[in-house]
Amino acid sequence: PSAMREVQLEVPKVLWSDIGGQEEIKLKLRQAVEWPLRHPEAFTRMGIQPPKGILMYGPPGCSKTMIAKALATESRLNFIAVKGPELFSKWVGESERAVREVFRKARAAAPSIVFFDEIDALAVERGSSGGSSNVADRVLAQLLTEIDGVEKLKDVTIVAATNRPDMIDKALLRPGRIDRILYVPLPDAKTRKEIFQIHFRKMPIGDSVDLESLVNRTEKYSGAEISAVCHEAALAALQENIESSLVDSRHLELALSTVTPRISDSLIHFYH
Ligand code: ATP
């Protein structure tokens, strides 16, 4: 039984144009990852080093995974995705070995991005789960060793995502490690509009649909929830008539009443 089976080289096909809004984050990531690869001499001339690692944090379903994939696709980087919890194994030593394996693959595939989703699961603050030699502590230690690497992490960028930045051990976020920290917020009005438009491009939409009103009524919806609204509306149209060729305002109305935002006000405050 091996956790390493989870480690796979992927070729994502997500484009920047598949992601509504979030322009500032897109730009910052391109500056951090794409520019140093494309123009290494410019960075040397300025005397600056590209970051080794970037952390995106924010509420669930707001495109962190899509952004990491688009960065890989558009910068033509190999992409290795790991979900934090999947790396854990009950076999002693297996989890650390899995972490080493991830980085070995990333170096072999350079230039590459290693994407750690739910990194909080891998890097919980030490001591917070009791005992000093538990698996979590050893995995974190291994992760730090890899990042500081004797074998220099050349052209490998770590991109990590979490909904719980407070859970991450501060050692991981020190300068020279994952030290670029970007907040990926709930979509604002402009972003929500673009997310609807992206989904509507793929479905037949009736004239009765009022985009502005949808935008105004989806405050506090995540991108994933807006996507669910579109999906539900299409199903409602089909349920009415399986030959149905249009999604109209009634279907969206129905979808808005079934898909409601899950984020609480306290969680919104938590990120600020
Ligand atoms: P989690 O924190 O739950 O892992 P995430 O922030 O990584 O979520 P994604 O998995 O990237 O979010 O997004 C979930 C889905 O929501 C996407 O597959 C997409 O359909 C939709 N979505 C979210 N944000 C956007 C956006 N800005 N533009 C287009 N689609 C979006």
From TrEMBL:
Residues 50-188 form the AAA+ ATPase domain. It comes from the Eukaryota. Coiled coil: none annotated. It is found in: Cytoplasm. Belongs to the AAA ATPase family. AFG2 subfamily. This is AAA+ ATPase domain-containing protein. It comes from Potamilus streckersoni.
